[in-house]
Amino acid sequence: MTSKLPVYIKIHDQIKKEIEDGIWKVGDRLPSERELSETFGVSRMTLRQAIQTLAEEGILERKIGSGTYVARQKVKETMTGTTSFSDIVRSQGSQPSSQTIAYFITSPSSSEMEKLELTKDKKILKMERIRYADDVPICFEVASIPYDMVKGFTKDEITTSLYQTLENNGHRMIGKSSQSISALSASETIAHYLDLKKGDAVLRLRQVSYLQDKTPFEYVRSQYAGERFEFYLEK
Amino acid sequence: MTSKLPVYIKIHDQIKKEIEDGIWKVGDRLPSERELSETFGVSRMTLRQAIQTLAEEGILERKIGSGTYVARQKVKETMTGTTSFSDIVRSQGSQPSSQTIAYFITSPSSSEMEKLELTKDKKILKMERIRYADDVPICFEVASIPYDMVKGFTKDEITTSLYQTLENNGHRMIGKSSQSISALSASETIAHYLDLKKGDAVLRLRQVSYLQDKTPFEYVRSQYAGERFEFYLEK
DNA sequence: CAGTGGTCTAGACCACAAA
DNA sequence: TTGTGGTCTAGACCACTGA
């Protein structure tokens, strides 16, 4: 239930929703903190905490001596970035889908412990899946997530859009990610998954994603069918 | 004067300094918020603001029910997104070099006309070269540049660092670039250049670079030995 | 000038971690 | 159970903005 959430989170969610619903438009000035605190029936400090989180997310903008305004919405790109498979596929006019090969909780390997900054007593959620564009296999990926990070979420919430779930339901702020890209020849297993011949060129992407406080929350290793996929980047 | 700074900023600075001075070491638990607020002679809310900013900077780590700890420092500043081959190689502790295979002026192909936004009466400067790290071949690349853009520069100015020459000598401001990355199998020619076997996995990078006024000034197609090179990105 | 966000106080109760 | 950080209150004064 949402009723156990802190008040300032609930206020945060409501104001955010009101902006999304168009009640407040870009550039609008919100009522003053004193007015809002009265409206919501909380102290000004609590109301300020809600405004604070919204400001950190870039949704609101505070101006000393003037007021609090709805900020112009910036690139939603930051949320998904260069590696959201679904968005890339959709932007090319195809339909993304995926098949989950494995989904289980286990202990972290040494590289997972290092990348996710975990101790060996922690558990991770591990997922393996094949991703498709219009039913053509494009990518095989293995994702590892600290189990503590997704405890309480449904499998669907985790597999469909982890980023969105963490931000909207988990109130975690997504930060940067570091990635490395290289090429290699397909193993027999990968060739089978991606409908390739063994030895065909494959693009390997390793990605560690972090929250805004620098806590790593996802380590993904992907192999893309080289001839069927391109990464596009802008700098 | 520091005296006009908010109290919580001054407390922030002092705690940060004490950590830098080694009074608190990584993993140490700080006194509780209640103790610290008494020590500094402020309310707990004010003290919490100081702790808050330090936590956001990753200097401190809070643990509910346990205490506040000095976080392990994770610096590793963002390696800027520049896909400068020389910089990447140097950052990995190797020595970059290159061998020019071809360097000539010609008419643009249709894809070059499109990417560089040229008409067919314009000329381009075309360069082919192999790039090395510590004398190991890493990459074969073909670069196309509108000839008007580099008229008057020496061959050395163009091949050594085109970006620097354009900015310093040409007074052109470099802007964004768009890139695509995919994987393919090495052709016989590429295999020869990069000391690979035909069919080995190769990373292909296509890059169009623009000035700040959106004028394209370089179109580069590179093929990297897949097993010898990785791209690192930060988003 | 009046109104705004920024800072600060001195309390309080809660959920959680560790002993 | 004790102590911790997390949340929350009902005030207060400040520096700044804009009319």
Characterise this structure.
- The structure is a homodimer of 235-residue chains.
- Chain A is α+β, with helices and mostly antiparallel strands and 235 residues long.
- Chain A has two domains: 2-70, Arc Repressor Mutant, subunit A; 77-228, Chorismate lyase (3-Layer(aba) Sandwich).
- Chain A contains ten helices and nine strands.
- Chain A has helices at residues 7-20, 33-40, 44-56, 77-80, 85-91, 110-115, 147-150, 155-160, 162-168, 188-194, and strands spanning 60-63, 67-70, 96-106, 124-133, 136-146, 174-185, 201-211, 216-225, 231-234.
- Chain A has a six-stranded antiparallel sheet.
- In chain A, helix 1 crosses helix 3 and helix 2 (33-40) crosses helix 3.
- Residues 74-82 of chain A have low confidence and may be disordered.
- The interface between A and B is medium-sized, with 32 and 34 residues.
- Strand 9 of chain A pairs antiparallel with strand 6 of chain B.
- The structure holds a DNA duplex (19 and 19 nucleotides).
Low-confidence stretches of chain A: 74-82
Biggest sheet: strand arrangement of chain A: 3-4-5-8-7-6
What count of domains describes the coordinates of chain A?
2
- Overall pLDDT confidence of chain A: 83
Q: Which fold name fills CATH's third level, the topology of the largest domain in chain A?
A: Chorismate lyase
User: Which of globular, elongated, flat, extended, rod-shaped describes the shape of chain A?
Assistant: elongated
Give the largest interface.
A-B, 32 and 34 residues
